[in-house]
Amino acid sequence: MGAADNNPRKKGHSSTSKAHISKQPMTWSNWYKHINWLNCTFILFVPIGGCILACWTPLRLYTAIFAVVYYFNAGLGITAGYHRYWAHRCYKATLPLSIYLAAAGVSAGQGSIRWWSKGHRSHHRYTDTDKDPYSVKKGFWYSHIGWMVLHQDHKRIGRADVSDLDEDPVVRWQHKHYIKSAIFMTLIFPTVLCGLGWGDWKGGFIYGGILRVFFIQQATFCVNSLAHFIGEQPFDDRNSPRDHVITALVTLGEGYHNFHHEFPSDYRNAIEWWQYDPTKWMIWLWKQLGLAYDLKQFRANEIEKGRVQQMQKKVDTMRSKIDWGIPLEQLPVIEWDEFVEASKTRALIAIGGVVHDVTAFVKEHPGGKAFIASGIGKDATAMFNGGVYRHSNAAHNLLASMRVGIVRGGCEVEIWKGVGRVEGKTGVETLAAGGQVTRRAPMVKVDEAQP
Ligand SMILES: [Zn+2]
Ligand SMILES: [Zn+2]
């Protein structure tokens, strides 16, 4: 929990007496001051009470169907409404759709649009930092629920601009009348509907109200925890957001969170047609019905840029762990005569202007000892590149591990500029497949007998 504040803002004050409770260590004597009892009541105690009461409340079929349908509406209110419409402005909604989303969102019991979107914009702006209201860097449970059940120092949370929301009459009305509308939409409406509809007042209250809210709350909290915890990072791995189908299944498609943090104003979270994103499907459907318009979408080219850069970063890391042979720049430059002289005591072969010590390899040469021995003390470029046998890419790579020098006056200048050289971000230079400096176009055509 909160670590002691070693850097009190005001000089002269003792850190513990004036510091916000969240910055004081939790002890046996102050733990209850850390707890946000109001939030605890709504997201823990009431749901626990609902689970206990459910043991004595039979679940009727109509009530179950209603609870599931209402659950999905509340979920869409959060994902398509609070999140993609208000927090990120991914599309524009007509007034009827806006009112529906505000009402459905209230029924999920997650605060007003204004409060929710402000926190979410801070989360995007300050992801993984101390200013992130639900930073996963403080632990899975902190990002899931801890940030709500423990008191937070509001001065810590990063600033986010919500002036556009303050101009939205639906947002203003919902914020002003939040408590009343939340009590009505979360509990009274499901109770009365199930009661008047098929006489199940208690079931409507427990299943359509309390437990439905509990499940939708936990599902939404997963976007802050699970979506920053499990899965792949195809677009950027510098921050915690991740893509995972399980998170998507739980959150009506919000699980492609690595994409979402990179392209937050895109109305989609899943960009592939086969990925599960019912929120995207609904927004698209509303567009067909004339309820939504101006759906924002990043160009595929921009998205692919990020994906390729991230793939490149992974490849750079992999190749930095591989020994590609001594870089040409670090090899000693020797005269041709020195090379010939030295090859009398060591098995040296020049290929493409690069000298290789094959002493230990002669016996292991897959093509036999005789062929390799015939190249010792000579320029075997043509022989290696097809004159005798056109060696594989792997053979060129293996050869590079034996290089010991460069022959002066050879064609090394051109070689050093050779095609296929790639400078990785890690500073480790390597070669694309087939790009070793020793590789030459075959000088003699082999195995091409005329019919
Ligand atoms: Zn996030
Ligand atoms: Zn977001």
UniProtKB/TrEMBL annotation:
Membrane topology: Multi-pass membrane protein
Catalytic activity entry: octadecanoyl-CoA + 2 Fe(II)-[cytochrome b5] + O2 + 2 H(+) = (9Z)-octadecenoyl-CoA + 2 Fe(III)-[cytochrome b5] + 2 H2O
Cofactor(s) this protein cannot do without: Fe(2+)
Stretches assigned to the Cytochrome b5 heme-binding domain: 343-408
InterPro entries reported in the protein's UniProt record: Acyl-CoA_deSatase_haem/ster-bd, Acyl-CoA_DS, Cyt_B5-like_heme/steroid-bd, Cyt_B5-like_heme/steroid_sf, Cyt_B5_heme-BS, FA_desaturase_dom, FADS-1_CS
GO biological process: unsaturated fatty acid biosynthetic process
CDD domains associated with the record: Delta9-FADS-like (cd03505)
Region feature (Disordered): 1-21
Keyword line: Electron transport, Fatty acid biosynthesis, Fatty acid metabolism, Heme, Iron, Lipid biosynthesis, Lipid metabolism, Membrane, Metal-binding, Oxidoreductase, Transmembrane, Transmembrane helix, Transport
GO MF annotation, one: heme binding
The UniProt record lists the keyword Zinc: no
EC annotation from Swiss-Prot or TrEMBL: 1.14.19.1
CC cofactor note: Expected to bind 2 Fe(2+) ions per subunit.
One of the record's GO cellular component terms: endoplasmic reticulum membrane
TM region positions: 35-56, 63-85, 182-199
Top-level taxon of origin: Eukaryota
Compartments, as annotated in UniProt: Membrane
UniProt xrefs under Pfam families: Cyt-b5, FA_desaturase
UniProt similarity note: Belongs to the fatty acid desaturase type 1 family.
PANTHER family named in the record: ACYL-COA DESATURASE (PTHR11351), DESATURASE 1, ISOFORM A-RELATED (PTHR11351:SF31)
Purpose of the protein: Stearoyl-CoA desaturase that utilizes O(2) and electrons from reduced cytochrome b5 to introduce the first double bond into saturated fatty acyl-CoA substrates.
Protein name: Acyl-CoA desaturase
Organism: Aspergillus calidoustus
Lineage of source species: Eukaryota, Fungi, Dikarya, Ascomycota, Pezizomycotina
